[in-house]
Amino acid sequence: MNEIHDSSLKVEPFSAARAVAAGIDFAELQVGRHGLFWNEYRPEDAACRIWHWRDGQAHCLTPAGFSARSRVYEYGGGAFCLTDDGIVFVNEADQQLYRQSLAGETPELLSSGECRYGDLQFADGQVLAVEENRDRHRLVAIDVADGARHLLAEGADFYAAPTLSPDAQRLAWIEWSRPDQPWTATRLMVAERQNDGSFALPRCVAGADAEESLQQPRFDASSRLFCLTDRGGYWQPWVESTDGLKPLPSAAADHGPAPWQLGGSTWLPLSEGSYLASWTENGFGRLGLCGDSREDFTGDYSRFRHLALDERFIYCIAASPVSSSAVIAIDRQTRQVKTLAGGVAPLPAEQISVPQTLRYPSGSGEAHGFFYPAMNREEKPPLVVFIHGGPTSACYPMLDPRIQYWAQRGFAVADLNYRGSSGYGRAYRQALHLSWGEVDVEDACAVVAHLAGRGLIDGNKAFIRGGSAGGYTTLCALAFHTVFRAGASLYGVSDPAALGRTTHKFEGDYLDWLIGDPVQDAERYAARTPLLHAGNIRVPVIFFQGELDAVVVPQQTRDMVTAVQDNGILVEAHYYADERHGFRKAGNQAHALEQEWLFYRRVMALSE
């Protein structure tokens, strides 16, 4: 694509294609007796491949024609596990399990049928997994030797994190029932092994009597059960005792994100009450060995995911404000850090816009986020407000090539963790209850006044963008406020009631929590539906939509485009025939990024 430059700006030629190409990411780091393994996503072909690192060398295990990605609950996670002699993974195309040795042979089909699998764990010769058959979910165990399937648990609406104790006598998992979400109320379950090898009826260890969100159950070497629970206000580590769960010494901070995906690992119990964990302070990630005392291993990084360790190293996927996601190994004695994959910055350090913590008043409370100053610009710059999806998700202070793309073009960026985002405790997360389309929009508008008041931006040149739920916030801001010059909706929600009628089971009741009952609270829905208030939008809007999207169906975007066009407002829309909910192909991502920038330039030129 050709670069188009504003002559008033001195920008480096950091193209949309380069920004997208730099978006290599990693997930599901695991260590075993055969070495270290991870799942790597590359935008160039949108495939996820498993890599094996041992003795200083890394090589790809996933052959052409395969991609290791689960779609359970639509967002997937936990797409592979280590076995005694290799791996088992979920193949993206058919969502079936495949067994693969480390010698490079063609993967062998292990399961069959119409089910989808995720959150894989290997234990005692079996793969434990969440099994999804249309809208029915179970926990199953599948023998690696012959593919025989065994039912472990059913009856709840959703399952996650099946975990077998080291002595193979206790099985733990997380489950929850509609209308709850995994970040509002879940249950920690345990089943004991019987003499015949089967498991007894499970008992609920926590979550039955009080509303709390539990995640990431873990056993230590002595088969004691631990988990994260937010009953104390944050997702913190607790351990079972004769009187139920009791807290471990920990920071008053979230030790895990909202579990939108399966297979997360942000903490690991060790011995004598100690544990390895990452947690969030003021939006920045920390890493440490914790217990009666704390050893800090944070270093220069600001986000940590998928923790693993052996006797010598702490392994994790980490990123910093000036380096992209990387697989790193930290020597537990010397604290020296070795980068095993990734971590290559797409720009020189002096050309990278570094995030500054945002904490500003909004409505009756306050909101959080990160501010990225514009590069190469002396006057007050225009602002792009980034709204993350979810909406119960979060943004992080790490190098994001998309943000750098805007900063290089003279735009400042406000990346928001509006009220309702995770990472700031349960109360902050719950602030979105029945208030979606209000408090998030209020926070998005308030940040413009806050930054303009500090003289950091030109408040008359503010733009807003968001994908999925972030697109909904964007459209509400444009329909109900006059703060922004223009906006971009990427597969955004324009009709929440229609979304509720068509969305998948995992989010089937989410809108009831966010807005209310669609029948009893019909007036509230109508008041917060951008499509019904499109006539209020008086500024240009650009839309991006995948034609295969099953979450926000394309017709929602088409209806919104038509409604805004009927106002005589400048509208642009781009549809991608081969994309689902969230764009994965490099060419499409680059095209969308550049078209959005060109659209904002056009808007600013029209008003000058």
Short description:
With 608 residues, the protein is an alpha+beta fold. The chain contains 10 helices and 36 strands.
Description:
The chain is an alpha+beta fold and 608 residues long. It has 2 domains: 24-252, 6 Propeller (Neuraminidase), CATH 2.120.10.30; 347-606, 3-Layer(aba) Sandwich (Rossmann fold), CATH 3.40.50. The protein is 16% helix and 36% strand. It is built from 10 helices and 36 strands. It has an 8-stranded mixed sheet with strand order 29-30-32-31-33-34-35-36, with helices on both faces. Strand 22 (275-281) and strand 23 form a beta hairpin. Helix 4 (439-453) packs across helix 5. It is globular. The two termini are 26 Å apart.
Entry keywords:
single chain, disordered N terminus, 10 helices, 36 strands, 8-stranded mixed beta sheet, 4-stranded antiparallel beta sheet, 2 domains, globular, Neuraminidase, 608 residues, Rossmann fold, alpha+beta
Average pLDDT number: 94
Q: What is the annotated CATH architecture of the largest domain?
A: 3-Layer(aba) Sandwich
CA gyration radius, whole angstroms: 24 Å
Name the helicity range: 10-25%
How many domains, as an integer? 2
CATH superfamily of the largest domain: Alpha/Beta hydrolase fold, catalytic domain
